[in-house]
């Protein structure tokens, strides 16, 4: 062991000594430090960093799928295996915490560079708005995983996630209240709305409708249905397009094309073993909820050879096996419908829901519009359609958290592995995942309550 260390040191000394001439060229090194508006464009065009690797812990924990005992036991990643049964154990893997904060860091770096850029530059507003959008989106993703559900009565006393507003690494991280975390997310998205263009030609970058939709999603999580309705409506005023599922190759492996007309902002999840296509077997009750005339049944799912009678998900909006956690117009129609129903705008709730469902329905069959007038029954219908439309889209975990606050919609989750049954009751503290122990040790931030 000592010999290996000595060899490594010797190699390092050789490399450093051979680099003397290079290190002397300090002026050249300065040239690679981002400082121009062109540099900010390049930073925000990093799709692989800004649009991917969002945390999948929540999706691992939802009830839209199940694993067989053999598959569960074969998962080599211990933490992912334990997350499936909601085991309340310390985590050491930091990737699902670290990657969104890398997005926050780059956003802050861009905003720092913009302080020295002429605001009259035609690119300034678009970049300024984009950086605020990415920071807010990443913080919201983290909040949905690592913080409890938002309630007006307790949010001021619950912990949010660390909010970094500068690229400096020396600033000590703290956990603000959930109220303050959401205030920053809302502020960033509103800045994005004010600065982003209506049309964005670069694939993967946000535009004004993206920010409206993101803010509608945030207010829905907060239970502020008036604001959720307003921002969902504003989003759909700009981008109302829906896929006509009749135009899709429904039997294809990936029927939804990447960057299709519904995509307002693409974001992809970290790949995990439990959520692998043929590992995650679609919940049988959920699958049976789709009518045979509902084209989503063929677009989203395909039968497994084994176990017989089971299905796997193939409907990612990334046109791949990678799960899509981004924002689409289909989601925003559902946000508008639910928010409208909750504030008594029943005609608007019906209209938004039926507009979506009609685009998914077999045109050779009779489509019967939803016309339910009872508020409770209408909400149940909307929430059922929300689950069916947004399956494997990273929304179910946050939906379970917020809906568990209402006794009408509470759900106890259950897993069965062999003869062992595991449960996750409504409003359990485990709905806020543990922060990785490595992060706790290095930063000193407070762990979630248990």
From TrEMBL:
Q: Where is the signal peptide?
A: none
Name all RagB/SusD domain ranges. Answer: 329-405
Q: Which UniProt keywords apply?
A: Cell outer membrane, Membrane, Signal, TPR repeat
Can you tell me where the transmembrane regions are?
none
Answer yes or no on keyword Signal: yes
Q: InterPro entries, per this entry?
A: SusD-like_N, SusD_RagB_dom, TPR-like_helical_dom_sf, TPR_rpt
Where's it found, cell-wise?
A: Cell outer membrane
Q: Which residues form the SusD-like N-terminal domain?
A: 21-220
Q: What PROSITE patterns does its record include?
A: PROKAR_LIPOPROTEIN, TPR
Annotated Pfam families: SusD-like_3, SusD_RagB
Annotated TPR repeats reside at: 209-242
Q: Which family does it belong to?
A: Belongs to the SusD family.
What is the name of the protein in this document? RagB/SusD family nutrient uptake outer membrane protein
